[in-house]
Design goal:
The chain has about 750 residues and is an alpha+beta fold. It has 18 helices and 35 strands. The relative contact order is 0.07.
């Protein structure tokens, strides 16, 4: 198993000693070559005083003037090292101090010059911890009778020598290729690579999924040893002993709801639902989650590969999964099959308040598999149910017409958001990485189901805290005020009169009011789309924190997708540790214990639920894994956005020369940005294309004003634009105006 220095050092928490054998297991060094490679790395890190050896074990050493950071470089050669801690200074690194590090690499940087009010601190790369470009996109050329690869990313300032590996490199000249890096720069030796795939004559000829996968180094296949490991998994038949140790829910009417695209492109069906009325006239909602942790043991080859991938990536017509297909077939909640699950059963009263809940290992059997569209048609009466579905319709009506609106009312009361969007591309039934509920007007059942699945994450987080267990919490910081100012100005220019006071901080209630007002505008989709861009990314922490979009202040966890999000698998393993090792009483002499699976035990526990060794190991595992998983979340988000950008660029390339009406959504000195509303595509009208006058930028009014004709292009104006040109790979769309703008008024547009 390949490992990076960053992955190795992540195994060291606090200043604890770690045995070499433990590192071998965690890093998957299973053969002699892997063990030898690990030992060489440990010896090297000891020699440069990153590690020290005591009594045959290793401990991490720290230096005050050395920080861990990620390089962000420019095409001009200089870089900044970006630290993980919020508000920490970015460190300037000259090209001569990069030590052969590349853009995106994770590094140790030594501070060589302190910063001041006007200048960033300056540093030099001491050690490369992890390479971010094990492969890259490039074009093939020849130089000095050698084949070379020139990276498409202009922030990678080098060329690679190409090794002949049987590919016809002569035929690949001037073509776009995927290059695997065999050797990074070493002294005077340039990097060495080999062509793994010829993608096309240029970016436009290449498949967009190939471009995104190669650009972000996303593996499309599994190694042979991972496929071989699936043959050793248990069979799908559940042993009688396993059924006996779990709650048997097979007789409950159970259903799944999936999007058509997920059913077509992903093998995973991870969630099923039940709903019943209780004797006290409350509702018991069952959210049943595929028990992936039962089949995937920690630190096995399948687990290590899933941890390295971090999260499944949705590339529209293709999903890059965490696990090979056999795992999903074994775990997915398929109709007519008995399946192992972790069930979150929540009791809610007539106002939608959570009364109590139970989290338990179960055996379930799905009776019906529906799509969102089928569900919508059934509850609206658009389609008549067949005999098999007749008994399910009343349950669906109760779920979507009674329970979901009650839960939604609770969310609205605390300030939680719902943002309108024309379509949703998500593998997850909770709020996902967007951080808020997304609503499609044509398919309201989607957001209505999300209202309910979010409850599972809330109660699981609450349960972990009540039992004083280790946890992974999904948090989201409030947006920066600066990000919102232009959007408020845009809304006001569109006549919305947005009275939002954002002098200090912005609250979820502020955003809730904005979404309500945006929904009254003719430009609602554009405004909501731009609002989404102001959200901070979700971040996983070991302590409960605020989640802005859901308006939770005291902890929330992702838990419903353990087969497609590794964080959820961690949560599932913590719960299973309680099921298997949890102590339900203070000591063995106590006759009666508490029910650790139920919220009824909260406030009654004054002892450690898990044995100290298990608790400490879970805490260590979480601390070593979280930084990596946060990086993978960002990588997946970037890849999915990149694909969406390529799709839009392709769409607009076909429309070159066509005229559209758009909305000016941003104005700068060099031009203004226009959002084509019907397509949600943004392009730039460069100031140099405005030939009719000399235009001046008025920042206070967010507009460009012509000196002679006094024509103004301001935030919120509607203009007619022609698609002039499209750079597909860079996703840049150049527009020219053919009409629109407004007349500048002297009183309002005076020079600054």
């Amino acid at each position: 198993m390949e490992f990076s220095i960053a992955t190795l050092l992540a195994q060291f928490v606090d200043e604890k000693l770690v045995a070499g054998k433990n590192l071998e297991k965690k890093l998957g060094c299973e053969d002699e070559e892997g063990i030898q490679k690990l030992q060489i790395t440990l010896d090297a890190l000891e020699k440069i005083s990153v590690l020290t050896k005591e009594r045959g074990k290793y401990r991490r050493l720290y230096e005050d003037d050395v920080v861990e950071a990620k390089l962000r470089c420019s095409s001009k050669g200089f870089c900044f090292a970006i630290q993980d801690q919020e508000n920490a200074d970015d460190i300037y690194v000259r090209e001569s101090h990069l030590s052969n590090a590349w853009n995106g690499d994770r590094v140790f940087v030594k501070i060589i010059k302190e910063g001041s009010r006007r200048r960033s601190p300056e540093g030099e790369v001491k050690l490369i911890l992890e390479r971010s470009n094990p492969s890259l996109l490039a074009t093939v050329t020849t130089k000095e009778e050698k084949y070379r690869a020139i990276p498409l990313d202009d922030r990678l300032l080098f060329e690679l020598d190409l090794k002949d590996n049987g590919q016809d490199l002569q035929a690949a000249i001037e073509h776009l290729v995927h290059v695997s890096v065999l050797r990074y720069p070493l002294g005077q030796h340039p990097p060495l690579g080999q062509v793994t795939k010829v993608l096309g004559s240029d970016a436009e000829e290449a498949a967009d999924v190939d471009i995104v996968s190669c650009k972000h180094d996303l593996p499309q296949d599994f190694p042979e040893k991972a496929i071989a490991a699936t043959a050793k998994l248990p069979s799908a038949r559940i042993p009688a002993a396993e059924t006996k140790s779990r709650l048997d829910l097979k007789d409950k009417l159970t259903f799944t709801i999936e999007s058509e695209s997920n059913l077509a492109n992903s093998d995973w069906i991870e969630n099923a639902f039940t709903l019943e009325k209780t004797a006290a006239d409350n509702w018991q909602l069952g959210i049943h989650i595929a028990d992936v942790a039962h089949y995937i043991e920690q630190d096995t080859i399948l687990d290590r590969i899933a941890r390295k991938r971090g999260i499944a990536v949705n590339l529209r017509k293709q999903v890059l999964p965490l696990f090979p297909e056999k795992v999903s077939k074994l775990c997915s909640l398929i109709p007519g099959k008995n399946r192992l699950a972790i069930s979150v059963m929540i009791t809610l009263d007539a106002q939608g308040n959570i009364v109590e809940y139970q989290i338990a290992p179960t055996v379930i059997s799905v009776d019906h598999q529906l799509t969102y569209q089928e569900t919508q048609e059934l509850i609206s009466g658009e389609s008549k149910p067949d005999k098999k579905l007749a008994s399910l319709v009343p349950m669906l009506s109760d779920l979507f017409f009674t329970l979901s609106p009650l839960v939604k009312a609770q969310r609205l009361q605390r300030g939680g958001l719902e943002v309108s969007t024309p379509e949703i591309h998500s593998l997850f039934k909770d709020e996902g990485r967007v951080g808020t509920i997304l609503g499609v007007s044509a398919l309201p059942v989607h957001s209505m189901l999300t209202e309910l699945t979010i409850l599972a994450g809330k109660v699981v987080a609450e349960h972990l805290q009540a039992l004083e267990l280790p946890g992974v919490y999904c948090t989201q910081a409030e947006p920066d005020i600066e990000e919102l100012e232009d959007l408020i100005k845009l809304g006001n220019n569109l006549g919305l009169e947005l009275n939002i006071n954002v002098e200090d901080t912005v609250s979820s209630q502020d955003y809730q009011r904005l979404t309500e007002q945006f929904n009254t505008s003719s430009a609602t989709m554009v405004l909501n789309y731009l609002l989404q861009t102001t959200f901070k990314p979700v971040k996983y922490l070991t302590k409960p924190g605020k989640h802005f979009g859901l308006a939770y202040e005291d902890g929330y966890a992702h838990c419903i997708s353990p087969g497609q999000r590794y964080v959820d698998l961690i949560i599932q393993r913590i719960l299973k540790a309680v099921f298997e090792h949890g102590r339900d009483r203070r000591h063995s002499r106590t006759k009666e214990g508490v029910d650790l699976n139920s919220s009824s035990c909260h406030g009654q526990i004054n002892w450690k639920v898990l044995p100290p060794t298990i608790q400490e190991q879970i805490e260590t595992d979480i601390q070593t894994t979280l930084p990596f998983l946060n990086d993978r979340e960002k990588q997946a988000e970037d890849a999915e956005k990149d694909l969406a950008g390529l799709k839009k660029a392709e769409q607009m390339k076909e429309r070159t020369g066509k005229i559209f009406e758009g909305l000016i959504t941003g104005v700068q000195s060099y031009g203004f940005f226009v959002e084509i509303e019907d397509l949600l595509v943004e392009g730039l009208v460069h100031v140099s294309s405005l030939k009719d006058d000399w235009y001046e930028y008025r920042s206070r009014n967010s507009c460009l004003v012509g000196r002679k004709n006094q024509t103004a292009y301001r935030l919120g104006d509607r203009v007619e634009v022609e698609v002039k040109s499209v750079d597909y790979y860079r996703q840049q769309i150049d527009l020219v105006t053919v009409g629109g703008g407004s007349e500048a008024q002297n009183a309002d547009w005076e020079e600054e």
